[in-house]
């Protein structure tokens, strides 16, 4: 994908250079930023298909950069950090990061995660190459009060469009595509995050909680995304055939 553009922001030059070299070997176009302020400047003047952010950068940190990005775009975000505490992972996921890796990491795993995110976000991409991708699922799924366009990746509730992050859209799409079917956290992680390794339950739980907060009328008593205690989650909804 020669037209796919990726922004890498990290204050560690060795990491920036290493990630850039390996991404460019995969024919991605890569820009690098030395801190959060420069990352925001790059993002404001260019269009990117994926962003790799270091959590701890001087001045404007990765948390703030991710917030800025999420206010403007659903572009997939991969967070990198030296911290390995559960709280940091939750913070990253809560602000809209789609994946999370701790340092030190394998550069080959970084590339694998990038490819997985790109596969999952093809329909959400911004580059000319991604925009030209034809999806084989042009259908619209309608439930009583909730509509999801599986081609355009848009969601409306009671006629009002709901802004969701890329990962939230993927998670909802997977669930609505398998109504009434119960999935464990591990199964959801494998299918939505495209990985067999689930580090902890919080990854899925945080996204389920965020998704409920956005689409459910009463998140504490969900109508659509229901918990099956001791097993996992399922999507329940009455189809609207009109």
UniProtKB/TrEMBL annotation:
InterPro entries: CheY-like_superfamily, OmpR/PhoB-type_DNA-bd, Sig_transdc_resp-reg_C-effctor, Sig_transdc_resp-reg_receiver, WalR-like, WH-like_DNA-bd_sf. The modification 4-aspartylphosphate is found at residue 54. Its main location: cytoplasm. The keyword Transcription regulation applies. Keywords: DNA-binding, Phosphoprotein, Transcription, Transcription regulation, Two-component regulatory system. GO terms for molecular function: phosphorelay response regulator activity; transcription cis-regulatory region binding. This is Response regulator. The lineage of its organism: Bacteria, Bacillati, Bacillota, Bacilli, Bacillales.
